[in-house]
Amino acid sequence: MRILPRDGSIPYLTDWNWLLTDGHIPGHVSLFHESSRALVAGDAFVTVKQESIYKVFMQELEINGPPKYFTLDWPAAKASVLKLAKLSPLLALTGHGKPVQGEALTIGLQKVLENRDIAVLQADCWEYSFPRLREAYPNIGF
Q: For the Metallo-beta-lactamase domain, which residue ranges apply (predicted)?
């Protein structure tokens, strides 16, 4: 493991840049290829609704914010989706779901930004995820 350069460059991948996309987890990064407008978003947003077992099995294309069950900071997560949307990517690969491109990507990101109720999601996150995490990992410090 290496620390990424502060200038956003990626050693050995000269045409790619990294962006800090906190929210899902601290230190989360996404990768962007400027000339092709390709984005590797990781879990900053996903293309399958992770909270639906049916949609996960069927891999129905549906752009959503990061997985609800383990996103630590919803305001930062929304800011990260906005940062990525402003790049106007033409293709996105995410940590969960199928690749998405073109108009489906643009419209999907806009819907995520318009429909995220941060207060509700933040409350749900704390109510659902953290008690279970504290129970499973008592020494982690949540």
A: 5-96
